[in-house]
Amino acid sequence: xxxxxxxxxxxxxxxxxxxxxxxxxxxxxxxxxxxxxxxxxxxxxxxxxxxxxxxxxxxxxxxxxxxxxxxxxxxxxxxxxxxxxxxxxxxxxxxxxxxxxxxxxxxxxxxxxxxxxxxxxxxxxxxxxxxxxxxxxxxxxxxxxxxxxxxxxx
Length: 154
Hints:
By secondary structure, the chain is mainly α. 70% of the residues lie in helices and 3% in strands.
């Protein structure tokens, strides 16, 4: 049983190793760039030219959101566990606010199609998250992405 004197201090404990959230986020961004032409093409067929611009803007919002999330968590983890927990919770709220602001700023622009933008943001977020579940290792031995076969020597 851990006593008060033996318990880790969340204020001073920090993570110095590699940041798995950065590798996962980078992998999702690569996958997002890979499927972006397909999403843009679908929006072009449905909503025309405005759908193209809206879809590209929505993809940029989503990929930026993933990158910002990883950067906040990785940076905070190197300072303290408590700050990482705060950055995770409040970072989520701040990023939601930034997405709202990014949409609100262009809602009346002539080149925007709100259905295309909204669909792109929702489909891209959920699609990339579900797609990435296949590649994430759910093990403390390999946090982040699953090791590749070449790395295992197989």
